[in-house]
Design brief:
- By secondary structure, the chain is an alpha/beta fold.
- It has a single domain, classed as 3-Layer(aba) Sandwich (Rossmann fold), CATH 3.40.50.1110.
- It contains 17 helices and 13 strands.
- Helix 4 crosses helix 17.
- The longest helix has 23 residues.
- The radius of gyration is 22 Å and the shape is globular.
Length: 402
């Protein structure tokens, strides 16, 4: 084969890859290209986001007095936010506990009266305020706790999160970590040379800021830990052939899954498993990436500093703190008998009040404790019941003596 024939074959491969990737990118945002460096922020979408969710300091939050309906695995799920900005509790018992964290604290996939906070409240007759917000990192949950004026009856505070939070706390723009999540800008912390936390503020504080995204891109690329580690690493850019070869297995699996889904839709045989296959590949890789970061001493140092600040701040405010690790279904499926994150949490539990629910869940039929959704598996009603039971036992004597 002559050099010209080789070049012709390479050119054909390059053109075919460009065509396939850009076609699939239109229906699956996790195959990113050069165009994703500066995605278009629709003014309508920005206005809707600012009206319903935006928070200049935290990035996003549930509005006090709001309500909504989300699609659950087994139908729609409705939630209501009370005047505190917490998920509503029936009967309004006197609040004794306030919980901050991500969607495993908010309790996605279950109704207001099925959350672990509600089940705990009903069983013990105490109010457990639910300040969880979907997709929060431990950093955002900490900041929300620091700025929230809690009722004087609250004696205990909980910071709950999934192990994947070790990735979320590295992020300033979720688009670089969760491709296509283009409106989710957030604050984050970093450690200075002395090991002290320095806060990097959310850059998108007003509607005008969203309209001036170009001005903030250089800063975001510097402050976000995943721009080069992940976004640029898997991004397709010319030549696409070399981009494909940077992660050949990942790209081949994703493109095949997207193609299989498109084919199934075309012939009218779409199946839930085929529909969810592309994103399930992404979620599994996300969990692997999160687990790997527990071997990164810089990442674990930042997470530990955030958790210590929460504990110190709680004690300063006269609250009794508890850090709670809430594994996703995929953490348990992929982590083996002892997930890679467990030694880190075992070590800091020597000096911090921390409860890792991994062993509690492994000791039961954990599959029944989760709804197998596309986001890594949230707690089912049964799972929330288990969490409520474990936390009630952990804090029972403490709450009874106050």
């Amino acid at each position: 084969m002559t050099i010209f024939a080789v070049l012709a074959v390479l050119l054909l491969i390059e053109v075919a890859l460009i065509f396939c990737v850009r076609l699939q990118r239109s229906v699956f945002p996790w195959l990113i290209t050069e165009r994703d460096e500066k995605p278009f922020l629709s003014p309508e979408a920005v206005c809707n986001f600012i009206d319903k969710s935006h928070d200049a300091e935290l990035g996003w939050v549930r509005r006090p007095g709001s309500h909504g309906i989300e699609r659950g695995q087994y139908g729609t799920v409705e939630y209501h936010i009370d005047g505190y900005g917490a998920r509503m509790l029936a009967g309004n018992p006197p609040p004794r506990v306030a919980a901050f964290g991500d969607s495993y604290v908010f309790c996605r996939q279950v109704e207001d009266n099925e959350t672990w906070e509600a089940q705990w409240s009903n069983a013990r007759g105490i109010g457990v305020l639910n300040f969880g917000v979907g997709n929060y990192g431990a950093d955002q949950a900490l900041i929300r706790y620091e700025r929230t004026s809690l009722p004087s009856t609250v004696t205990h505070v909980i910071l709950g999160f999934v192990p994947e939070t070790i990735c979320r706390i590295q992020s300033s723009w979720k688009h670089y970590l969760e491709f296509g999540n283009i409106l989710a800008f957030k604050p984050r912390f970093r450690l200075d040379e002395a090991g002290r936390l320095q806060r990097i503020e959310n850059v998108m504080r007003t509607a005008d800021d969203f309209a001036k995204l170009d001005n903030y891109l250089p800063e975001l690329r510097q402050t976000d830990g995943f721009y080069r580690r992940k976004f640029r690493s898997v991004q397709f850019r010319l030549p696409y052939t070399l981009s494909f070869l940077r992660h050949p297995l990942r790209n081949a699996m994703l493109m095949s899954a997207v193609a299989a889904r498109a084919f199934a839709r075309t012939i009218g045989t779409a199946h839930p498993w085929i529909e969810g296959l592309p994103f399930s590949i992404v979620m599994r890789q996300n969990i692997r990436d999160a687990h790997a970061m527990y071997r990164d001493t810089d990442a674990t140092a930042l997470l530990e500093a955030i958790l210590r600040r929460f504990v110190d701040e709680a004690r300063r405010r006269g609250h009794r703190p508890l850090v709670v690790v809430m594994p996703q279904l995929l953490d348990l499926r992929m982590g083996g008998r002892k997930p890679v994150y467990s030694p880190f949490f075992e070590e800091i539990a020597r000096t911090l009040p921390l409860l890792d629910l991994t062993s509690e869940l492994q000791a039961t039929n954990f599959e029944a404790c989760y709804v197998n959704d596309q986001y890594g598996g949230h707690f089912s009603v049964r799972g929330n019941q288990l969490v409520a039971s474990v936390l009630s036992r952990r804090l029972a004597a403490d709450l009874d003596t106050i």
